[in-house]
Design brief:
Elements (H helix, E strand, L loop, with lengths): L3 H12 L6 E6 L4 H13 L5 E9 L6 H14 L4 E5 L8 H18 L4 E3 L4 H13 L18 E2 L7 H15 L17 H17 L3 H25 L6 E3 L2 E5 H6 L2 H13 L7 H13 L5 E4 L3 E6 L2 E6 L10 E2 L5 E6 L2 E7 L11 E4 L5 E4 L5 E2 L8 E2 H7 L4 H4 L3 E5 L2 E5 L3 E2 L12 E7 L7
Parallel strand pairs: 1-2, 1-4, 2-3, 4-5
Antiparallel strand pairs: 6-7, 7-10, 8-9, 9-10, 11-15, 12-13, 13-21, 14-21, 15-18, 16-17, 18-19, 19-20
Helix pairs in contact: 1-2, 2-6, 5-7, 5-8, 8-10, 10-11
């Protein structure tokens, strides 16, 4: 059998999980799976144009967690990979769900701070099997049976899904103590604690299923995930195939035309709403999608419906939008933006970055602009704000421009504007003013704005 690293190279070449070069953040818990991920990517990462960075999250749950963090730091140093550490202090008794959510939040923060294009985790084929079985027992829908996707939002990649746990552990063992410091690998006792559902499935239920049905159990569950994944892909394709829906996905928001969606048969409309949510990572079950369809059919433009704590559905003009609930009208304080050689700031759910750069083509409606050096701030829209559009005549009300750009009502109050001496220079994606425009050859600052965690291509 070919070496595991060679098989991984072939898998990554076929799937193009890393379509562009960039910085990749490897999540390393210290267990054999994530250690294998770290060591494998020190071999295959350069071929993909990846600059590697490791991250370890100490949940602060188990005694000795600091020692595990030190082991990970030693492993990363041995591999020549810089390592970031995050300590959470959740305390003994924190649930699996709470720990997982807190871990991903911490990893996403490191990803943002380190400007990493990718976040890479060590999920493998056994994790996929256990996830499908767990979701089956919880009564998930067909989309849930698709299990763990190889790609997730904001650059999340799971490259080891084709490989079994035993393959990863055998590969580490075969490398020997000189190549891989096996003594530094941490075996988390929580993985054998059968109070946790997944541990019970792994150590009790799956062995019983193998005893009854043979070793094909894992393959059958994997096949089920593949079939369910095909169904999920088919509904994603349906969103794009029905031209009257006019699907748009950008900046963490997915939206379709309201009228045709509301006219379809209930079953079709609800399935399309679930597919719409999946475009941005919002999971809708059958009951919630039915309530959402009733809301779409009966409510007026400007109304919103909460979809759990993290998501909201909005009726904006003739569109149905699913957006992160965090994108609200709450205002952060004004902050400096673009007054240094380079930098980045997060403001009210937006990421703004800047650098000194020769001036490029300026457009009125763009999420990228250039300004002359100066003391700029980003703040929320204020009453009475006006802007003199680039190449236009007179001054326009900012609020009216936001309405004409079909920015949802609840987002307008917290929408960012770039100002200098209280003059509005730029409304990202909506309007650029004719002020502070650098000329070719003059010093210029390039500023880009995007919803936190998203990227623009303009």
């Amino acid at each position: 059998m070919p070496d595991l690293a060679a098989r991984l190279r072939e898998h990554l070449r076929d799937t193009r999980l890393f379509p562009q070069p960039g910085r990749a953040l490897l999540a390393v818990s210290g267990g054999p799976d994530s250690v294998a991920l770290l060591e494998l990517f020190t071999e295959v990462g350069p071929d993909l144009g990846l600059e590697l960075l490791a991250a370890h999250v100490d949940h602060g749950i188990a005694p000795g967690s600091r020692e595990v963090a030190e082991r990970v730091a030693r492993l990363a140093d041995r591999c020549g990979v810089p390592c970031r550490q995050a300590r959470l202090g959740l305390g003994f008794g924190a649930s699996e769900t709470r720990a997982r959510r807190a871990r991903y939040e911490a990893l996403r923060e490191v990803q943002r701070e380190a400007d990493c294009r990718y976040l890479v985790t060590a999920h493998h084929a056994d994790d996929q099997t256990e996830t499908v079985l767990y979701r089956l027992l919880r009564g998930t829908g067909m989309a849930g049976l698709a299990g763990i996707p190889a790609r997730g939002p904001r650059g999340l990649v799971r490259p080891l899904l084709p490989f079994r746990r035993r393959e990863l552990e055998a590969w580490l063992s075969e490398r020997g103590p000189d190549a891989s410091p096996l003594g530094d690998i941490h075996h988390d006792p929580a993985n054998r604690d059968e109070r946790h559902d997944r541990s019970w499935l792994r150590h009790q239920l799956l062995p019983l299923l193998r005893e009854r049905f043979g070793t094909v159990v894992e393959q059958r569950l994997t096949d089920l995930a593949r079939h369910a994944g095909s169904e999920r892909q088919a509904w994603a394709a349906a969103l794009r195939t029905l031209p009257e829906l006019e699907l748009r996905v950008s900046h963490g928001v997915a939206e379709v035309a309201r009228v045709p969606l509301a006219r379809y048969d209930n079953t079709l409309s609800e399935a399309l709403l679930r597919a719409l949510g999946r475009e941005v990572g919002c999971v809708l079950g059958p009951r919630r999608s039915a309530r959402l369809l009733a809301f779409v059919r009966s409510s007026d433009s400007g109304r919103a419906m909460q979809l759990g704590s993290s998501w909201v559905a909005e009726l904006s003009f003739d569109r149905v939008r699913i957006a992160p609930a965090a994108r609200s009208a709450a205002r952060d304080e004004a902050v400096a933006c673009g007054d240094d050689t380079w930098g980045r700031v997060r403001w009210n759910g937006w990421d703004l970055s800047w650098r000194r750069d020769p001036v490029g083509a300026l457009h009125r409606k763009s999420f990228v602009t250039w300004v002359t050096p100066g003391a700029n701030r980003v703040r929320a829209v204020a009453r009475g704000d006006r802007i003199a559009p680039l190449g236009g005549v007179g001054r326009c009300k900012v609020r009216r421009l936001l309405m004409e750009a079909r920015v949802p009502l609840r987002e307008r109050e917290g929408y960012p504007v770039l100002v200098r001496d209280d003059e509005v220079l730029w409304i990202p994606g909506v309007c650029r003013s004719g002020a502070a425009v650098p000329q070719p050859g003059e010093p210029a600052v390039r500023i880009e704005a995007c919803a936190a965690g998203e990227e623009h291509t303009d």
